[in-house]
Amino acid sequence: MSNLTTTPAAGPGRSASSPAPSAAPGRTRAPRLSGMTWLTWRQHRAAYWTYLAVTALITAWIAHQRASLMDHLTALGWPDSSPDKWMVGIEPYVQQTLKVGLGLLPLPVILGVFLGAPLFAGDLESGTAKLVMSQSARPSRWLTAKLGVTVLVVVVCTVALSLACGWWWRPLMEQDGSMGWDVTVFSNTGPVPVALTVFSVVGGVAIGMVLRRTLFSMVATFFFTVAVELFWSMNRLNFANPVRIANHSGVNGSPPLVPPGGLTVDSGSYITSSGKTLPMHTCLHEPSAKAVDICLLKKDVVGKSVDYLPLSQLSSTQWLDALILFALAIAVTVFIFLWGRKRIV
Question: What is the pTM for the complete model shown?
Answer without folding.
Answer: 0.80
